[in-house]
Amino acid sequence: MTGTGHASLRIDTPAGSILCDPWVNPAYFASWFPFPDNSLLDWEVLGDCDYLYVSHLHRDHFDAEHLKRFVSKSATVLLPDFPTSEMRDELEALGFTRFLETKTEQVHELDGGLKIMIQALTSPTDGPIGDSSLWVEYDGIRILNQNDARPTDLTTFHALGHVHAHLLQFSGAIWYPMVYELPEAAKRAFGKQKRDRQFDRTFRYIDDLKASNVIPVAGPPCFLDDELWQFNDIFGDEGNIFPDQWVFQQEYAKVGGTNSTVLLPGSVMELTADSAVTTHPTDVEEFFAHKREHLEEMRERKRPVIDAAKATWRHPEIDVLKEMKRRIEPLLDESVYLAKGVGGPVRFDLVGYDGESVESIVVDFPGKQVRTYADEKVRYRFRTERALVEHLLFIEEVDWVNSLFLSCRFKATRIGQYNEFVYAFFKCLSEERLQYAEGWYAEQKPDAEDVKLGDWIVQRRCPHLKADLTRFGIVDGNTLTCQLHGWKFDLPSGRCLTSVGHELRSRPAGTPPPAAAGSDPSGTPAGAAVATPGAVITAEVGAAEAGATAAGGAHAGGTGAGMAGSSASGAAGAPPGSATVSE
Questions:
Q1: CA–CA separation, 181 vs 413, rounded Å?
Q2: Contacts of 263 (CB under 8 A, 6+ apart)
Q3: What Pfam families does the entry give (predicted)?
Q4: What pLDDT score does 583 carry?
């Protein structure tokens, strides 16, 4: 395996080579750059591969410019089993013609005994309508490239045999909490909680798979624009959500981890069943000891790239209100689940070229229209440069999350809890995406299986994205936290404390379940299948264990509470004017 930066790597076997997620050019309005810098690698050689795997369409994984210029068009694309055709369409537009359309969780044997399996995640909140992981086997040696996918568990991969190298994300890849208009102390506290939770989730995945070698990948990016420089983790801020690979090494060691290796761009790991021998282009510890100097050198070298990108964003000929109405109102008319989930108006404050004038536009979800702001109360408010929205409209961008929001070039405030439907809608600004997301939410079924967690009986699957709560659920008093994404639930009421909706079925242990309408006297719904009559699976997870992960004791970071300016619709027991947050 050759490290090629961020989530990218090249896997070489006697039966062929696989290039994964090559990302070099800046992403998200020139905000994100790979770090360590990988632009000086010999991409002509690296791109001459037999197979190409792109995990998903996030622009720090799908670099269209680089794919077009450097990756061989004779390579066979290992295509995840996504619900829309967007990835294939985009790759075909770049000149790729050979595709292996995989089936999710199905092993495919390629020429020469090389085997691959791709697990596709297809919730509307998984990347831009999909994320995936790649499992590879050759001659009994197995690799799992999980990158930044978040499956509910790794059982499928574990069942295929012992994994010798596990590559997975550990660092942040989001805009929260940095962009929120909060007191600095609150922002730092929320950031620390998120940073801790990121490590907890990573350690849990590592413990689940128990691979011989662990390789931290898929982050963090670096921020080279002067406006975003403060997001780099070089200031000793415990609330920074972008810890680097060397910080991971230190945190992993705290929970007993001794089997991790950092791959710099150009590092090569020779992997066998019994060993992993790695050669590096430079001393890894020494490199990260001088991280700030490396970033400052990159900032000066990449400044012309950022300036050139900024010069393309302004489109004064575009009437933003008119174009937003044209693009968004037809989708609002068709939306049922997403519009209802948002449940209120969302406001965009667009700052003019002069840096002072502001045009406020509202996307009114209940009213199904885009209009000028009319001084009403709004659920979410985003403040950004008008030029950025002009550019999104000019290029007819269908995913504002995979562009504007991930750029961190905006400020946000909100009333009440985090609302996933806001961001789900703004990544679905096309007919195909919207119809898929609406259908996905329509097909969600209640989870019929109950489990015992501490002193409570709860449904087995998290209402958010169906994580198995026997693995990810932590009970502390009357609160359940699902550690996969940090969502919290009030057990006495079943109410979600993190977001709107997503109620949990819960009751104290020892109390009978309520009889449902149309059920027989045992409480079983008429016509319902019962796998194990009266069965409740027990997973003893209580307050005494709430601070430990399966990897051996890292603190279980929760979601934050107390967003300034929020309404009293937040967490039970939280101070008035506060709400829990999870993003």
A1: 6
A2: 1, 2, 3, 9, 215, 217, 269, 278
A3: Rieske (PF00355), SCP2_Rv3818 (PF25451)
A4: 66
